[in-house]
Amino acid sequence: MPAPVPPTHPEPAAQPATDVVRWAVFGCLLVPAVLLAHGDSAGGAAAVALGLAAITVACRVLLRRSARTAAREGSGPAPRPAEGAHRSDRTPRVVRR
Asked: What is the C-alpha separation between 42 and 21, in angstroms, rounded?
């Protein structure tokens, strides 16, 4: 029996981050084009494009960092604190004697 072939598509957890970056790049191209079509100056459209590109790069860096941290720490939920470990400041503890 032949060995199973590993999938060539990205894993589902990485796909949403890639989609976000793709849409951001699309917006970086679309917004200046719309501004130019509606009569804005080329300099204004270029400034908007640079601003959107900077935001896209920052978001991509943060998404990659988050994915690396999740992969390193495991993707499971955070452990819950022990019962009684956290008390609200709103309800004072009643001490009976």
From this structure: 25
- Tell me the three state secondary structure of residue 77: coil
Please answer whether residues 35 and 51 qualify as being in contact, where contact means their C-beta atoms are separated by less than 8 angstroms.
no
Q: How many CB atoms lie within 10 A of CB 28?
A: 19
Tokens of 32: 């200046």
Query: pTM to 2 decimals?
Result: 0.58
* pLDDT one-digit tens code per residue, 38-69: 999 999 999 999 999 999 999 889 988 988 88
The single residue listed with the structure tokens 């719309």 is 34
CB 42 within 8 A of CB 36: yes
